[in-house]
Design goal:
Layout: E1 2-9, E2 12-19, E3 34-40, E4 45-52, H1 54-63, H2 67-84, E5 92-99, E6 103-111, E7 115-122, H3 124-132, H4 138-142, E8 144-152, E9 160-167, H5 171-183, E10 187-199, E11 205-218, H6 249-258, H7 263-267, H8 273-281, E12 286-288, E13 292-293, E14 295-296, H9 302-310, H10 314-320, E15 326-330, E16 337-341, H11 342-346
Parallel strand pairs: 2-12, 7-14
Antiparallel strand pairs: 1-2, 3-4, 3-12, 3-13, 4-11, 5-6, 5-8, 6-7, 8-9, 10-11, 15-16
Organism: Aureimonas altamirensis DSM 21988
InterPro entries: Heat_shock_Hsp33, Heat_shock_Hsp33_C, Heat_shock_Hsp33_N, Hsp33_helix_hairpin_bin_dom_sf
Pfam family, one: HSP33
């Protein structure tokens, strides 16, 4: 069922179309922790937008990382759910960085249709030094290395992995570079992380994490309109004259509009995803599609951990057995602790 929510902007009546499957009288906004696909047909653009509230607060709160690490991991989570919810099959999408910076590993798993888990590894001493020097931007914390984006459709299908270099760039820049390099799709990405304070009953305030993000892509019917300037080190003949490049006007407009988003606006619960999309594209007309909910949900289980341990060599298992004859494993993603008797794994 399609219904049109008509909002009035400064220039007059503009239409914001919401593709919605709910019954009449049940219309509502997606709210937090739900990715909203959208289309701006007049500009040949499609994308996805999200605001994360309780989900990301729960996930980051469990780990209790230093604030710079939490902010960096939150950006990675937003990026992963924006990309992962576009999967049209049952499977897993994983984004992972491996770098030489103070935060040398970020891993975010998205399992269809909605499960998210995340983990960060960092050097506490190097992180303290970076914080003292005021170097806590994503570029500073990550340093140089790679980001791998992996699509796993299950044991019967071949995995696909795309790798992009991290060389002093933000996660927004890296994601845009990935789509430009691997998919040849003009893409713009915005990510934002914030802390908000809510007044509690009885006085005082409680801080909680929020995050938001938007990805927009240029997908015209004519592929030649997607042409982009060659990347440094591309396949142009050495010594060839540089070809003058003019970006498509529609894509230039999309990028200009997305660039107007303020970080606070992107994560502000009083704005919301649909209202943000209206603010950006109301003069061109924007259509929002049914949202996909996402949740903090680790895929670990006692049986899966036991299967992993069963693949250890006898020497590795012997080293894992503690003095009381038990093997203890803690999931790095969710912190769940598992305890096994040695014979449960070895069968002896």
């Amino acid at each position: 069922m399609r219904r049109s929510l008509c909002l009035r902007g400064a220039s007059g009546k503009s239409t914001f179309v919401v593709e919605d499957l709910r019954q009449p009288g049940e219309f509502g906004f997606a709210g937090d922790d739900a990715v909203v696909p959208f289309e701006v047909a007049a500009l040949d653009a499609r994308g996805r937008a999200v605001q994360l509230g309780d989900m990301i607060d729960s996930l980051l709160g469990r780990h209790d990382y230093p604030e710079p690490v939490s902010r960096l991991l939150a950006e990675m989570i937003v990026l992963t759910v924006l990309l992962g919810t576009s999967l049209k099959f049952d499977g897993k999408f994983t984004a992972q960085t491996q770098t030489d910076g103070p935060v040398d590993l970020l891993v975010v798993d998205f399992s269809t249709p909605s499960s998210v888990r995340a983990y960060a590894r960092f050097d506490a001493e190097r992180l303290s030094e970076a914080a003292a020097a005021g170097k806590t931007s994503p570029e500073d914390l990550l340093g140089r290395g790679i980001m791998a984006l992996t699509v796993d459709q299950g044991p019967q299908m071949q995995r696909y992995q795309g790798i992009v270099e991290l060389a002093g760039a933000s996660l927004e820049d890296v994601a845009e570079g990935y789509f430009r390099q691997s998919e040849q799709i003009p893409t713009t990405v915005r990510l934002a992380v914030a802390k908000i304070a809510r007044r509690q009953e009885g006085g005082g305030f409680k801080e909680s994490w929020r995050a938001g993000g938007l990805v927009a892509q240029f997908l015209p019917n004519a592929p030649e309109r997607m042409r982009m300037p060659d990347l440094p080190g591309g396949d142009a003949p050495e010594g060839a004259e540089e070809v003058e490049f003019e970006a498509d006007d529609a894509w230039t407009e999309v990028r200009a509009l997305v660039d107007t988003i303020d970080d606070a606006e992107l994560a502000d619960p009083e704005v919301g995803v649909e209202r943000l999309l209206f603010r950006l594209f109301h003069e061109r007309g924007v259509r929002a599609f049914p949202p996909t909910a996402v949740r903090d949900d680790c895929s670990c289980s006692r049986e899966r951990i036991r299967e992993v341990l069963a693949n250890f060599t006898p020497e590795e298992l012997a080293e894992s057995v503690e003095d009381d004859g038990k093997i203890r494993v803690t999931c790095e993603f969710c912190g769940e602790a598992y305890e096994f008797k040695a014979e449960e794994v070895t069968g002896q």
